[in-house]
Amino acid sequence: MDYKILGSTGVKLSSVSFGVQTFGWNIFGKEAHELLDIYVEAGGNYLDTADSYNDGASEEILGQWLRARGDHENLVVGTKTFFPTGPGPNQLGSSRKHVCASVERSLKRLGVEAIDLLQLHCFDYLTALDDILQTMEDLVRSGKIRYYGLSNYLPSAIMKAVMIQQHRNFHRIASLQMEYSLLVRGAEWELLPVCAQEGIGTLAWSPLAGGWLTGKYQLDAAAPENSRVGRKDRWDDQAEQRGGERTWRVLDALGAIAGQRGVPVSQVALNWLRKKPAVTSVLMGARTPEQMRGNLACVDWNLTDEEESALDQVSHENPPYPFSFINNYARK
Question: Does the predicted model carry a pTM greater than 0.85?
Answer without folding.
Answer: yes
